[in-house]
Amino acid sequence: MTTASGKSGFPKGLKETDILLIESERLIIRNLQVDDLKNFLDYRTDPEVCRYQDWEVLDEAFARNFIDEQMHKSLDDLEEWIQLGIELKIEERLIGDLALRRHDRNGSIVEIGYAISPAYQRKGYAYEAVNCIIHHLFTEHEVHRITARIDPRNEGSLALLNRLNFVQEGRIRKCFYDEFDQEWVDEIMFGLLKEDYLR
């Protein structure tokens, strides 16, 4: 895995180029761009993709504004979600996105989220992208813990986090109302410590 620049700890602040050009074998993790709009909408308007997320189906105007806001975000933005695009190198195409949010003032605890276009699921891209950002956060920055919250009905996401050695740390009962199924659903909390990942 390579990055666009050298190491930089969170407390000292990050430039956009410090994190937003991260490469794995098949993927590039980067800022969302205006040219991503069509591909972004392809999966963000799919009810099945939105079903297990905490966001609703997007319309074009909202998606355009969202990308405009995210284009210039960096991990200096405390307490805000930062959405990074997942680009498939061989097609030079956006196929999904990663979300990051710092939970403490020095950035040592980070929550992650992820979404992959259905057309590119079951090809190992989600694992590669999430593993890439985890590796980057643990080895290039002063992160000691990464968390994730998922809908227990999302079997693919459960399998992904288990494969990445996340530990289930709790379950919040009926804390999210699913408009799709019109029912209250649980949320499972997962965590991964730096020492566990590097070991």
TrEMBL record:
Q: Which InterPro entries match?
A: Acyl_CoA_acyltransferase (IPR016181), GNAT_dom (IPR000182), N-acetyltransferase (IPR051531)
What domain of life does the native source organism fall in? Answer: Bacteria
Gene3D superfamilies per the UniProt record, alphabetical: 3.40.630.30
Positions of the N-acetyltransferase domain: 27-191
Cited SUPFAM superfamilies: Acyl-CoA N-acyltransferases (Nat) (SSF55729)
Q: What is this protein called?
A: N-acetyltransferase
